[in-house]
Design goal:
The protein is of the alpha+beta class and about 210 residues long. The protein contains three helices and eleven strands, in the order H-H-E-E-E-E-E-E-E-E-H-E-E-E.
Length: about 210
């Protein structure tokens, strides 16, 4: 059974997140409940703000598997965002995000690859990113789509719903772009709040 960590005086969010990562991989342990995991993510976010933590773009580079997400409710309370209950991503769907840097050192620029695999279907979206390290914000846009079925590419071309062309992306104010606000970056997992207010938790691809 999962211990009710929310009742402890000192809430160790790192332990909870590490437990969730290990259990999701299937290596050991039991997954914390959605409620406990959401609480851990909120505590991690609060701690990052209190300590004014900043993370380098390099700590995001690599391939990460989406483990847990929350939605948001339409009703807002006291001007804040009300989170949904959250859920673990079903194991029959694999969702990865990858971040790659450009050759320019310390530019914070690179590429994002968002990939969803469901049985024989693979959907891959790519586009540019820019990381603002002082605020731990990663702005991104998708401008290319690839779809394959049973390993055969059936669609591979630019997409029109990308907000801006790559060459114009870096001139756009972040207020006009999609972004993640990262509040936790470790060797094993990362966590962020999206522009819409939801939380996401990824584990490093092994």
């Amino acid at each position: 059974m999962t211990a009710d960590l929310t009742s402890t005086a000192t809430f160790d969010f790192v332990t909870v997140l590490s437990q969730a990562a290990a259990a999701y991989r299937g290596s050991k342990g039991t997954r914390p409940s959605a409620e406990i995991l959401v609480n851990a993510l909120l505590q991690a976010e609060k701690s990052a703000k209190q300590q004014r933590l900043t993370y380098p773009f390099e700590s995001l580079l690599g391939k990460w598997q989406l483990c847990f997400v929350t939605g948001t409710n339409k009703v807002r309370k006291r001007g804040g965002i009300v989170l949904g209950k959250g859920l673990y991503v079903a194991k029959f769907i694999t969702i990865h995000v990858s971040f790659n840097a450009t050759l320019e050192q310390d530019s914070g620029r690179g590429e994002i690859v968002n990939q969803v695999e469901y049985g024989p279907v693979l959907l891959k979206l790519t586009g540019p990113v820019q990381y603002f390290s002082k605020k731990n914000l990663l702005a991104f846009d998708f401008n290319h789509m690839l779809i394959s079925l049973f390993g055969r590419v059936v669609y591979n071309r630019p997409i029109r719903f990308g907000k801006v062309k790559t060459e114009d992306f870096y001139n756009q104010p972040i207020a006009k772009l999609a972004f993640f606000g990262f509040f936790l970056e470790t060797e094993d997992f990362i966590a962020a709040r999206g522009r819409g207010g939801g939380l996401a938790f990824w584990i490093r691809e092994t």
